[in-house]
Amino acid sequence: MNKEILKYVEDEDLDLKHNVDALSYAAIKTANLFSDIEPMQVIKFMLCNEPIGSFTHSYGFHTREGRAMREFFGNKYYEHE
Questions:
Q1: Alpha helices in 1-81 (DSSP H)
Q2: Strand partners, 57
Q3: Which of 16, 41, 43, 70 maximizes the CB count within 10 A of its CB?
């Protein structure tokens, strides 16, 4: 998963300031909690605000589930950092 994250960051020309292991851990835990979501979808949502269908966004704003996902992801990221 770490290689996928690094490739995505490179492809999107992002300046990665985060721990890749912690990102991977948090993405996997988040995807496991929110069913039918892949860890890379979580990474794309967290790093570039890419919507995961109507699950995370509605009319350009985060849904309740999207906000919950961000909070859960953040907790798992800092737990593993």
A1: 2-11, 20-33, 39-48, 53-56, 64-80
A2: 62
A3: 43
